[in-house]
Write a structure and sequence with these properties.
TIM Barrel; alpha/beta; Beta-galactosidase; Jelly Rolls
Amino acid sequence: MSDLLASAFDGSSVAVDAPAAASPIVAPTLTWRDGEILRDGVAHRILAGSIHYFRVHPDQWEDRLRRLAAMGANTVDTYVAWNFHERVEGDVRFDGWRDIERFIRLAGDIGLDVFLRPSPYICAEWSNGGIPFWLSGRVAALRTSDAGFLAAVDAWYDELIPRLVPLQASHGGPIVAIQIENEYGSFGSDAAYLAHLREGLRCRGMVEMLTTADGITGDMIEHGSVPGAMATFTFGTGVARAVELRREGDALMCSELWGGWFDHWGERHHVRSAASTGGTIEELLAAGGSVSLYMAHGGTNFGLWNGANHDRVLQPTVTSYDSDAPIGEDGTLNEKFHALRAMFAPFHASGLPPVPAGPRRQAAASAPLEQRSSLLQLVATLPVTGEVSPRPCTFEELGAEDGMVAYEADVSFPADAMLTIDGLHDRAVVFLDAQALGVLERDGQTSLALPVEGGAGRLTLVVESLGRINYGPYTGEGKGIMRGVMIGRRLVNGWTHRLVPQEAPTAAPGLDRSAEASDGVAVASFDIAEPLDAWLAFPGGSKGMVWLNGFLLGRYWKVGPQETLYAPAPLWRAGRNEIVVLDTDGLGATVEIRDEPSFGETEEFIGS
């Protein structure tokens, strides 16, 4: 589709000569002209908040959407995470938790419009920025006109977009706007790529208003914009700068107004006050702008879906995505919620829905952790993947999406030898035979001393991916051991690999369950009368993954800031509930149910 045809969707009066046999163009519900968004020709404000269906248990979608409507939003904003739907190439899933159509229909039933942001890249502090690992493992030029990348995107759009077309407002559904890519102006400069995405949406039947979203610099807007789409902004503060940068004719909109921020392991928990958030939103509304609050309800990076940043060092994101949002991780409504409700209420002629009651929580309790096996004993039960390899394979070569891989090789070494991992992504627990030698980390210590007297033995490296990078030039980089392992200057050859599954580990019959090793697999159980929300804590634990009734909740890590894991009510059952922990560094003695979350020491975030 040409730029001329694309411009027909921006609300301007451009004449388009279509072939006589072409189907009539369906008018979009929202357009923009002379600095305003129009809904069926009448001035309209988008008052949106972000809720990601992939971060909320599907049994809680309706509850969270109703809380958003009660906050005064008229629109829900959500990304579509490609890798959440196509974990294995060609196996595209839209069932269960991945039923994006159900989420959109629920929003419509509640009376919310939908602002859809359908990848291929979403950032979102989500693993790999939403791009499937199997694609980034073979395509060097992600987010460009690279033929291999575009072919994969087109195949994905062929699966996704036909499901969304009938859910557009012009067909009676709630979708009123669709974003092309995400903050592309801070990543690349391939205008043909953006045009390809735009045309891919249009030719597959998406007729509603198209947008782009970029930060508040002229360079970002220049390289992130495309004809036929309204340029919008992302910022925490900076309304005046956005007004200056707004393109002629475009309406003023912040597609991501950061009312909080995400957390990295080893940092503090970020918060933003209601006064600070509300002040920026008031300024934007006073300037005639539309807004989408990022996040209105953050949810959780369940499983191993957390992403990571890289700013000179790797910065993995924590399991919680609470983001100090107005609607908390468990649905709690805070001061920010009530301030925004008062602010948005004047834009609703018929009043707002009543404020929902707060969530019910399980009473505090504690249960002992019983060790079932050490980490090495667990590794010994896992099958070998593939053939013996001259060098260690990457996660991508092994088909490992995330988690942990055990690398094994027989080694001999002289006295005073050093072991080095070249290209460690991201963390390795090192064993020689049954002896734990230490931990190596990507941006920290990458070498350690082998036994001073020299010798030989079985080397085992349990390598963990801490989160695939979701933003910047390192997006899509691989995991595992990227180059090699050396003793002194000599490479170690002859590697076998075992993938640690993301299912809850169990102790195999006949395993020695002695507690000589402090790491490994342990189990606790709770008997409860009614499934309710809870927060789990692991006092004394070092670094682990946690399963509740077989569902992988996420990670804990003593470096903080996050101290509790959210365990939503739909994952519990009346009666006995089993919690499995796999700690690579040192198990604690108990698991606690707490009735309040603890996100750690805080610091104020303002944004720019």
